[in-house]
Every structure is written in C-alpha cells, then in structure tokens.
Amino acid sequence: MILAIDPGRDKCGWVFASEEGKLVASGIFSADRAAEFFRAVVSGKGREIASFALEKTGSFPEWFSVHECLVGNGTGKELLLSLAKSVSIGVKLVPEKGTTLLARKLYWKHHPPRGIRKLLPEGMRVPPRDVDDFAALAIVLKFIESQSAR
Question: Which superkingdom, per the lineage (predicted)?
Fold first, then answer.
C-alpha cells in the first residue's frame, strides 16, 4: 500500500492507496496528532488507522504494510519528515504543485454533486469539507505518473 501525506501547519491530509492509485482510506489529522498517526502506521493494525479515517472503500484491512511513503514538499513537511525518520519510515518528497485543484476534482469524483450543486459549473463547486486527504491522493497520482514517465 502507498501512504501519502499532504503536510500543513495545522492539519495534514493522508491517504492509503493501492499501487494503481485507488483510494483505500483517507482522513485528516491535526499536526499535533502527527506522532500518534505515525505510531498507528508503524503498528500495521487497521483499526488503529481506521480511527483517523474520513473516507474508505469497503473495510480497511485488519493488517497492512506500507510499501511507499510519500510526503508533499510544502509547508509543514519538516515535522513529518522527522517523525517518519524517528520510526524508521523512509519518505519520498513529491512536488505539491496543483494538488489543491486536483483534490477538489477528486472529491467530486468520489462524491458526485447532487441537487443545486449539480447545476453549478465545476470551477464554482466548493466541497463541504476540507479536502486535504484528497490532496494526498493527488500526491499519489502525481507520483505514479512520474514513475510511469521514466
């Protein structure tokens, strides 16, 4: 599984995705809970991560392992990099350029608009919640794209 994190000063979006870039589970944690999040990742226990989840497709596996850990290269990455290092998780930095706009598109792909939102042009639709977790999914997709371009 791929773990990606969209860092921020106050909050971080995260996603577990398949090697093909399909969302498995995602969520948002406050920066002050970052150490707790990394401990949950290292535990490999699905129920530990599930407590941080906002989105998931089906049930999260009881046990999991991270094959790739990606972190966006934006604001707040230093804390995540030091925490990952402290628990022996190797990290690859991925450029974040364009991930916020892609995150909105990904949100609406997973939650098609209904009612009056359906009538709004795509550029005017604002998701009803923060989409930092979908920004993390955008990081995964950018990484996969960069790997296939090699």
Answer: Bacteria
pLDDT digits (tens, 9 = 90+) for 97-144: 999 999 999 999 999 999 888 888 888 888 999 999 999 999 999 999
Q: What is the pLDDT of residues 54-93, one digit of tens each?
A: 988 877 788 999 999 999 999 899 999 999 999 889 999 9
CATH number of 2-148: 3.30.420.140
Are 132 and 104 in contact by the 8 Å Cβ rule? The answer is no
How many whole angstroms separate alpha carbon 138 and alpha carbon 59?
Answer: 22
Q: Where are the alpha helices (DSSP H) in 20-131?
A: 34-43, 46-50, 77-86, 99-110
